[in-house]
Amino acid sequence: MVVDLLSRLPPDTTILLREGKFKEPGEFERMVDMVCELMGIKVEWRQVEITAELWGRKAVFARDLQMAADCDLAVCFTTTEQAYDMECGSTALAQKVLEADKAVYHYAVDAMRFMDRDNHLMLIGSHDTDKKFARYFSA
């Protein structure tokens, strides 16, 4: 599932992963980081930058806007329960990428089975107007 998807990406891909300022990355992000390391895919962690003007949710929003600006493509993963929840950071990030008119593929996976081989990803939505990345996401 995720390994298969990552294996389809171009070799010069850099994966941007979100992490909090005071909180360890989630299990899913750590798993993606580990798989990328094993596959030789570059990972760049994006952390919240707190300033006097930007803190709390504003700092998270600023980080996510910067990630949307910096990416060519966003592949966002959420649990099935979070797929349409704008309080979920990954769902909100997918929306920010969409608003920036960048390519985005948003997948949901069962939180309890994300490492299972039989757990297929469910495409929640995508935006890839010129189909630049579609070949990497074909069945």
Can you give me a brief rundown of this structure?
This protein has helices spanning 2-8, 27-39, 57-70, 89-99, and strands spanning 14-19, 42-47, 73-79, 103-109, 122-127. The protein is of the alpha/beta class. The longest helix is centred in the middle third of the chain and has 14 residues, at 57-70.
The class by helix and strand makeup works out as alpha/beta
Give the averaged pLDDT, no decimals.
85
Number of separate domains: 1
Which bin fits the share of residues in helices?
25-40%
Which blocks of ≥5 consecutive residues have pLDDT under 50? none
Physical arrangement of strands within the biggest beta sheet: 3-4-5
The radius of gyration over CA amounts to 15 Å
**How many alpha or pi helices?**
4
Order of SSEs, N→C?
HEHEHEHEE
Question: Could you give a short account of the major beta sheet?
Answer: 3 strands, mixed
The counted number of beta strands is 5
Q: Tell me the fraction of residues in β-strands, as a range.
A: 15-25%
User: What gap, in angstroms, lies between the N and C termini?
Assistant: 11 Å
Overall body shape: globular
Textual characterization of the structure:
- With 139 residues, this protein is an alpha/beta fold.
- It has one domain.
- It contains 4 helices and 5 strands, in the order H-E-H-E-H-E-H-E-E.
- The mean pLDDT is 85.
Draw up the topology in text:
Blueprint: H1 2-8, E1 14-19, H2 27-39, E2 42-47, H3 57-70, E3 73-79, H4 89-99, E4 103-109, E5 122-127
Parallel strand pairs: 1-2, 3-4
Antiparallel strand pairs: 4-5
Helix pairs in contact: 1-2, 3-4
